[in-house]
């Protein structure tokens, strides 16, 4: 088992439209190409230093689903093939957010 | 990664990577790094069953599964724990 993975530096905070905070592993957040670019680009995004990204246009419910998707994606990549359940009523909003986040 | 749980308090959710064989105390250690609250001031409650998790037991023993929601509460100054408080987004209006 790898040593202490839950250090603050390895976590990022994603903030929804209603101001709810999701603290997730950087590795999970980087499933999103958009977030990966924000966190790794040399352009000096303030997001890079603070490890915090605000999404004023993504609602809490959708952002949580996105975070669950990140972790599901990591599990899937490591060979644990389960289904990812999406409630029909959030499909459109989720697709729009996924499109924006490139994930 | 074996699994993760969602630890919630007020408007914050921590996604914590863990293993079914880890004990509750191991999870509290991880939360200490994130919340700056010592492990003995933390209490974890499995939301689906409303059961308080015991430090010496493993997650598997207490039926804490992948994607489970666990409420985090802190010990107050008068030594009691605060009530479980998980904010709902419906109660807050979006800025957009």
From TrEMBL, chain A:
Organism name: Dioscorea cayennensis subsp. rotundata (White Guinea yam)
GO BP terms: namely: jasmonic acid mediated signaling pathway; ubiquitin-dependent protein catabolic process
**Entry keyword annotation includes Coiled coil:** no
UniProt-recorded name of the protein = Elongin-C
User: Part of which pathway?
Assistant: Protein modification; protein ubiquitination
Q: Does the keyword field hold Transmembrane helix?
A: no
Q: Identify the coding gene.
A: LOC120268715
What the entry lists under Pfam families is as follows:
Skp1_POZ
Q: Where in the cell is it found?
A: Nucleus
TrEMBL record, chain B:
| SUPFAM superfamilies, per database record | Ubiquitin-like
List the residue ranges forming a coiled coil, or say none: none
Q: Which Pfam families match?
A: ubiquitin (PF00240)
> Which parts of the sequence belong to the Ubiquitin-like domain?
1-79
Q: What Gene3D superfamilies has UniProt attached to this entry?
A: Phosphatidylinositol 3-kinase Catalytic Subunit, Chain A, domain 1 (3.10.20.90)
Q: Which CDD domains would you find in this protein's record?
A: Ubl_ubiquitin_like
Q: Which SMART domains match?
A: UBQ (SM00213)
Protein name (record): Uncharacterized protein LOC120269177 isoform X1
This protein's gene is called LOC120269177
């Amino acid at each position: 088992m790898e040593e202490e993975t839950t250090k603050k530096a390895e976590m990022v905070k994603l903030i929804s439209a209603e101001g709810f905070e999701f603290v997730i592993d950087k590795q999970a957040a980087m499933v999103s190409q958009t977030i990966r670019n924000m966190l790794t680009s040399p352009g000096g995004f303030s997001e890079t230093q603070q490890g915090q990204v605000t999404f004023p246009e993504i609602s809490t419910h959708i952002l949580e689903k996105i975070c669950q998707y990140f972790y599901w994606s990591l599990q899937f990549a490591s060979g644990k093939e389960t289904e990812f359940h999406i409630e029909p009523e959030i499909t459109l909003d989720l697709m729009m957010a996924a499109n924006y986040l490139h994930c | 990664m074996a699994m993760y749980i969602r630890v919630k308090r007020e408007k914050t959710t921590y996604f914590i990577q863990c293993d079914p064989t880890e004990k509750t105390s191991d999870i509290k250690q991880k939360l200490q790094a994130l919340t700056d609250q010592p492990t003995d001031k933390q209490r974890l409650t499995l939301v689906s069953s409303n059961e308080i998790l015991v430090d010496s037991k493993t997650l598997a023993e207490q039926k804490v599964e992948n994607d489970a929601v666990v409420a985090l509460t802190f010990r107050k100054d008068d030594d009691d724990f605060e009530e479980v408080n998980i904010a709902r987004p419906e109660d807050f209006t979006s800025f957009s």
